C-alpha cells in the first residue's frame, strides 16, 4: 500500500473536461476522481476520492469523505497517528487543506 500524506495533496483541483467527476491540480499535476459507493456504512461513507500522480498509469484510493456540519468533508491519510484534513467541494473545484 502506498503511503499517503495529506500535506502532499493540499491545494485546489479544477474540474477537467474528461468527466464531471475528474479534477486536476495545475500546480502538481495530481488528478483526483470523486466516486460514490453503491453501499455505504458508518465506517465507509458514500463518497471517496481516488488519485493519480503525474506520469502514473493508474488511480489509487486516497480517502473517504466524512461529512461535517459546516458543509465540508473530513479526510485522512494512511499514517499513524492519522492526520486529518478538510476537503471542500463545489461544482468546479475540490480544495484540500490541513
Which properties best describe this structure?
globular, 9 strands, 98 residues, mainly beta
SSE blueprint:
Blueprint: E1 11-15, E2 22-24, E3 31-36, E4 47-52, E5 60-64, E6 66-67, E7 73-76, E8 84-89, E9 93-97
Antiparallel strand pairs: 1-2, 1-9, 2-3, 3-4, 4-5, 6-7, 7-8, 8-9
Plain-language structure description:
By secondary structure, the chain is an all-beta fold. 0% of the residues lie in helices and 43% in strands. It contains no helices and nine strands. The two termini are 22 Å apart. The mean pLDDT is 91.
Helix and strand string, N-terminal first?
Answer: EEEEEEEEE
CA-CA gap between termini = 22 Å
Number of strands: 9
Domain count: the total is 1
Number of helices: 0
**Percentage of residues in strands:** 35-45%
What percentage of residues falls in helices of 4 or more residues? Answer: under 10%
What Rg is obtained from the alpha carbons, in whole angstroms?
13 Å
Residue runs with pLDDT of under 50 for 5 or more positions: none
Please tell me the overall pLDDT: 91
Largest sheet: 9 strands, antiparallel
Shape: globular
By helix and strand content, what is the structural category? Answer: mainly beta
Largest beta sheet: what is the strand line-up?
5-4-3-2-1-9-8-7-6
What's the gist of this structure?
The protein has 98 residues and is mainly β.
Amino acid at each position: 500500500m502506498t503511503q499517503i500524506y495529506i500535506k502532499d495533496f493540499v491545494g485546489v483541483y479544477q474540474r477537467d473536461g474528461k468527466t464531471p467527476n475528474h479534477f486536476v491540480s495545475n500546480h502538481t499535476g495530481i488528478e483526483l476522481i470523486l466516486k460514490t459507493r453503491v453501499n455505504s456504512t458508518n465506517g465507509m461513507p458514500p463518497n471517496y476520492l481516488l488519485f493519480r500522480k503525474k506520469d502514473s498509469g493508474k488511480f489509487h484510493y486516497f480517502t473517504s469523505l466524512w461529512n461535517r456540519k459546516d458543509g465540508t468533508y473530513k479526510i485522512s491519510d494512511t499514517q499513524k497517528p492519522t492526520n486529518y484534513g478538510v476537503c471542500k467541494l463545489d461544482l468546479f473545484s475540490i480544495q484540500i487543506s490541513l
